[in-house]
Amino acid sequence: ANIKKAWTLTKGVGSVIAIIDDSFNAAHEDLKDNVIATYDAITKTTKALDEDFLNTNGFGAHGTAVAGIAAASANETGVIGVAPDAKLILIAIGADTNTDSQIIDAFDFALKNGANVVSCSWGTFNVSSAVNAKIKELYDNNITVVFAAGNDGYNLDEVHPEDGSVINDESELPWVIGVG
Predict the structure, then answer these.
(1) Residue 151: is its pLDDT beyond 70?
(2) Contact predicate 64/30, CB 8 Å
(3) From CA 15, how far away is CA 143, in angstroms rounded?
(4) What share of the chain is helix, strand, coil (3-state, %, to 5)?
(5) DSSP 8-state class, residue 42
(6) Helix count (H) and strand count (E) of the chain?
(7) pLDDT tens string 8-32
(8) For residue 79, which phi and psi values (nearest 5 degrees)?
(9) Cα–Cα distance, 106 to 108 (Å, whole number)
(10) Whole-angstrom Cα distance, residue 114 to residue 143?
(11) I need a surface site. Which of 20, 31, 93, 175 has the fewest CB within 10 A?
(12) Quick check: helix, strand or coil at residue 102?
C-alpha cells in the first residue's frame, strides 16, 4: 500500500540482493533482466538449482517467488518487485536439510559477489555457531541479512513442539533483521 511512497525515495538502483532459497527459474521474464549471478551451494556450480527439477519432485518455485517480491523488473508483464531496479544474486540450497558447509558457502558467494542485502525466507530453528559466525561476518562487512522469523508459526521463545529442543533460529541473531 505504501510502495509508491517508498519508490519516491528509491527503487533499489545500485543495490544487490542475494536470495538464498530452494531453487530458481533464473530465466523467468520478471527476473532475467536483474539477475547478475547464480550459484548452487550443493553442486558448487554457477547454475542455480532449476525449479523445474524440484517441481517434478514435489518442491520448488519458492525461490523464484521470493526473488520476484524483492526485485521483479518493471517490464509491463507479471509483477513488479519492491526494488525493481536492484540486481539479484540467486543462490540455491535445495529443499532438503543442508550442511553448515553448504549454508556457509551460500553466504560466502553472496559476500564475494557484492551483495548489499541477503534475504533468507527459511530458518533452521537451531543455528550453529559456525553459521552464526558467518552471518556476523556479513554484518561486519555492512551487509544486511534478513531471515524469516519462522515459516511454521512456532513461538520462538518456547521449545520446538516436535522435538522439545530450545529454538535458536537465525532470525533471532542480533546481526539479523527477523521478519514475521
Answers:
(1) no
(2) no
(3) 11
(4) 25, 20, 50
(5) T
(6) 5, 6
(7) 999 999 999 999 998 888 888 899 9
(8) -115, 170
(9) 5
(10) 9
(11) 175
(12) helix
